[in-house]
Design goal:
Layout: H1 14-27, E1 32-36, H2 40-51, E2 56-60, H3 70-75, E3 79-83, H4 91-98, E4 100-105, H5 112-125, E5 129-132, H6 144-149, E6 155-158, H7 167-170, E7 174-178, E8 195-200, H8 204-212, E9 220-222, H9 229-239, E10 243-247, H10 255-265, E11 268-272, E12 282-283, H11 286-299
Parallel strand pairs: 1-2, 1-4, 2-3, 4-5, 5-12, 6-11, 7-8, 7-10, 8-9, 10-11
Helix pairs in contact: 2-11, 4-5
Length: 304
Amino acid sequence: MSGKGARRTHPEASCEGELRQEAQSNFGMVPRIWLIGGTQESAVLAIALAEAEIPFVVTVTTDAARAMYASALEKWPQAKVHVGPIASDSMAGWLLSQGIVGVIDASHPFATAVSAGAIAATTQAQLPYLRFERTEVQPWELSEASQSDRSTDNVTLVPNLAVLLKPEHLVGQRVLLVLGYRMLPDFQAWQEQSTLFARILPSQTALDAALAAGFTSDRLIALRPPISTDLERALWQQWGITKVIAKCSGKAGGENIKRAIAAELGVQLCLIQRPAVNYPAQTSKVAEAIAFAQSSLSQSGITS
């Protein structure tokens, strides 16, 4: 685990720490870990926390995402799911109201605003923070075809979306966008020069955003990951895709599958690299995340 993940001392946070201890004492509040969720790896962590009998609350932004944590909720009555966004300027107060004693951030690698808000809130509240970062795709996780194809420039890594919003990348192409709905408006101006398709999550918010960005219903598909290799390949072939634009989302986000199919079908794959975030502490190991949670509870005077 990189970083110390220790409780940080800030004079301005001492009052909040005292208020939290008083609230827990007076109202019998159960000290909990805040698991920032919405990803496949957060569902794995939730089960591990439940099996370790660690009280926690996992937050997601949509009601549909609640189903990811059904197994953890069945295993452990001290597991809770909170549905709805939490504004960055409200996070410190939310931590206090929920009796949070430590934060495990397993949000999407591109949800930088969420991570930045959580880091600021834990610093203010004098709480330990741990980033659970999904691993990047490793060479041994790629098929032989996709490994050899890297020498033919089949896969292009770019630092941001702006690099790809240019004629040489889009004009005349049949492009599949696997970027999430928030980036789709950036492609609206290219609808007449390219044949654009998008895969989105099955939510009304995502659908409304895609339609507003000029995508017609025949160029949209709503699927929740994980996506199988066969389904991914069939979708690209059905739409005659010549280029795919996606994020460097790691194996958990199906990046290895996209790389393999791109090599197999001769499709250009453009991957937006993860934004750099200065996490106070991070790990990609479930055991280290559980140890962090147990340590956070111990520091609060509770042992699992």
